[in-house]
Amino acid sequence: MRRLIADHTRNYYLKPGEALVSRQPVLVTTVLGSCVSVTMFSPSQGVGAICHAMLPGVGHGPRGLHYVETAVRYLHGKMMRHGALADVVVKVFGGAQVLDAAHYSLTRLTVGEQNVSGVEEILRLLGLTVTKADTGGTRGRKLFFSMKNGDVYLRRMGRRCDLVDQVLQP
Prior knowledge:
Elements: H1 2-6, E1 10-13, E2 18-22, E3 26-32, E4 36-42, E5 47-53, H2 68-81, E6 89-94, H3 111-125, E7 130-135, E8 141-146, E9 152-156, E10 161-163, H4 164-167
Parallel strand pairs: 1-3, 6-7
Antiparallel strand pairs: 2-5, 3-8, 4-5, 4-6, 8-9, 9-10
Helix pairs in contact: 2-3
């Protein structure tokens, strides 16, 4: 982990409702429960993007990036402006059920499930394909996204850190 951190010129902690797009070798860290993060990386353009969305649907104004559809459309627009959609690699994380199951109804999706469903739908509408995903379950996740090469390291709460590209199948 020290080497991963040392290989980047800057480290950034992404909070809920934030997004970051950069050509710099930034290491972005975020922690997810029911929230979702979408990462995008273009190898040819050397640009990466990540968002941390909390709620399903569309948001407006200063809190717009808290909402899944708004955040993903924001990333998509920024990647388009960088000319980076031809080879974009998209990965999706989060959407866990982190509260006690007694608080949920069998007839309604949890917030995490709604977030994941919303991400999948907006990416489909934008014509983007998810390359890797680690969603759902009952445990939170800590992500480390390298804007240097597009790699995502994932730590499920209570487990060791793994390179997602080595542990997940496309």
